[in-house]
Design goal:
The protein is built from 13 helices and 25 strands. By secondary structure, it is α/β, with parallel strands linked by helices. The protein folds into three domains: 174 residues, Rossmann fold (3-Layer(aba) Sandwich), CATH 3.40.50; 178 residues, 3-Layer(aba) Sandwich (Rossmann fold), CATH 3.40.50; 95 residues, GMP Synthetase, Chain A, domain 3.
């Protein structure tokens, strides 16, 4: 690999070729590629003056906008390692990430939140302190670029490491999948603290397009901005599309510049899958799959959406995926197995967690002799045409009286009744069957008796929920928009 295999090189190239073309817009200002490159160099010099050296970790805690983008590229330019955080994280989570990463500096637009951090706190856009020091050479592609913290089923969030080369290679793969061009204008609704959100930035830098970052909350504002800013692409998680499709079904409106939408971070409900082509006529719908430890893995081409709604598709360029049975052999067509990932996008491992890394990233003979792969923990099936279908998280799968039960089938059936807005199914201990199904649902005026009649009509007996909790308000979700099964399980007792 060469320096050309990094996002830093791609930013520099865009700054030279298209210095005035908008790189990022945040409502308050617009930065062209030339200005973005210059601002990143200036902040990198300030970080160097504050004692940050190549290889050091720098925690990023900023509101969505141009300053956050500048900080990302400043840290990478210095050869330090970016540790992005989410604005919604509380002091406990931030303290864990700060201590676990061993960060030596924080870039924050709220320096008052860090009185006892014990590290240098740098604000974006400040003046240089004295004469700037000369910056070191740009990092090599195999140097670590970022640590993305992600929650698992147990314990504190783990830091997933990725190199400059992997982030750039994945961005190139995504731009091929989506057909991105310099004329694309993406509406960034997702936090840059997670790779799905960060990939909106990395893909636009790869092709020289524009990322629009605004702190949007109300779905109506999303649609207004999409029209106002001539947005060509929107990325969302299932919660995003549930809100937007519901709004557009009630009040249809044209989005004349919108070319495509993408979903990742979880499976869409049947209602949303049916609604998407209705509310976004003529718009390409990309169903994507990935995980922090392996970045982007699969995609369903828009042309196959109508015949295979809900499928996660096939491997994207540069990625390899395999469906592996419990005995280690490759699964046959239709057989349930764990999805494993191989290729340039797979993480080197968890930050400072060798035992957890050894469990997650280990050889898989079925994927090739000595091949190091990422074991996803996701159970999938491959159909006769080679298309993959997500079934369940391995740790979310329930075993009820000898039956293997995926929560998604139950959740979809309950939402399809029209009696609830959301549903989350989890397994709870049962003295006879080992586990039983328990569900939490939300919605206005839930008729529990009618819901029970519906599931008895639509589901086999072993899938019938044995416990039902009507949640007051929307069901809890993680910071990435996925159902918070741990919170639901705790509430069910």
């Amino acid at each position: 690999m060469s320096h050309g295999d990094t996002l830093l090189f791609l930013l520099q190239r865009a700054a030279q070729d298209r210095p005035e073309h908008p790189a990022v817009e945040d409502g308050a200002r617009t930065l062209g590629y030339g200005a973005l490159h210059a601002a990143a160099e200036a902040l990198a010099a300030r970080l160097l003056g504050a004692g940050v050296v190549p290889g050091a970790r720098v925690l990023l805690h900023l509101r969505p906008g141009a300053d956050e983008v500048i900080a990302w590229f400043a840290v990478m330019r210095l050869g330090a390692i970016a540790v992005p955080t989410h604005q919604a994280w509380r002091a406990r989570q931030l303290r864990h990430v700060l201590e676990d990463s061993g960060a030596s500096a924080v870039v924050s637009d709220a320096p008052g939140r860090w009185p006892d951090a014990g590290v240098a706190v740098v604000t974006p856009g400040g003046p240089p302190a004295g004469d700037p020091l000369p910056l070191p050479a740009p990092p090599e592609p195999d140097a670590l670029a970022a640590i993305f913290y992600t929650s698992g089923s147990t314990g504190s969030p783990k830091g997933v490491t990725h190199t400059h080369g992997a982030l750039a290679a994945c961005a190139r793969s995504i731009t091929q999948t989506l057909g991105n061009t310099p004329d694309d204008r993406l509406l960034g609704l997702l936090p840059l603290a997670f790779h799905y959100g960060f990939s909106q930035l990395s893909t636009m830098v790869t092709v020289g397009g524009t990322l629009i970052l605004e702190p949007l909350v109300m779905p109506a504002a999303v649609l207004d901005r999409a029209v106002e800013h001539r947005v060509t692409g929107i990325a969302g998680v299932p919660a995003t599309w549930a809100l937007l499709t519901g709004m557009l079904q009630e009040a249809p409106r044209a989005l004349p510049d919108l070319r495509y939408v993408t979903n990742a971070g979880g499976a869409l409900s049947p209602r949303v899958l049916q609604a998407l082509p209705e509310v976004f006529p003529g718009v390409d719908i990309h169903l994507l799959y990935g995980m922090t430890e392996a970045l982007r893995s699969t995609a369903l081409p828009p042309g196959r959406f109508a015949e295979k709604p809900g499928a996660i598709g096939c491997a994207v360029p540069g990625a390899e995926v395999f469906v592996v049975a419990e005995d280690g052999r490759l699964c046959d067509t239709g057989q349930l197995g764990e999805l494993v990932h191989r290729g340039a996008f797979v993480s080197p491992g968890y930050w400072r967690q060798p035992e957890a890394s050894a469990r997650k990233f280990r050889p898989c003979p079925a994927a090739g002799e000595g091949a190091r792969v990422c074991w996803s923990g996701d159970l999938v099936r491959r159909d006769a045409e080679g298309i993959l279908w997500f079934v369940s998280r391995k740790d979310a799968l329930m075993k009820v009286g000898g039956y293997r039960v995926g929560p998604g089938e139950i959740e979809d059936a309950l939402v399809d009744t029209g009696l609830v807005d959301e549903a989350v199914a989890v397994g709870v201990p049962h003295p006879v069957t080992g586990q039983a199904v328990a569900v939490a649902v939300s919605g206005p005026d839930v008729d529990e008796a009618a819901l029970k009649r519906a599931w008895q009509r639509d589901l086999p007996r072993y899938m019938w929920p044995q416990r039902l909790l009507v949640w007051p308000g929307p069901l809890p979700r993680t910071a990435t928009g996925k159902p918070d099964r741990a919170a639901v399980r705790a509430a069910l007792g």
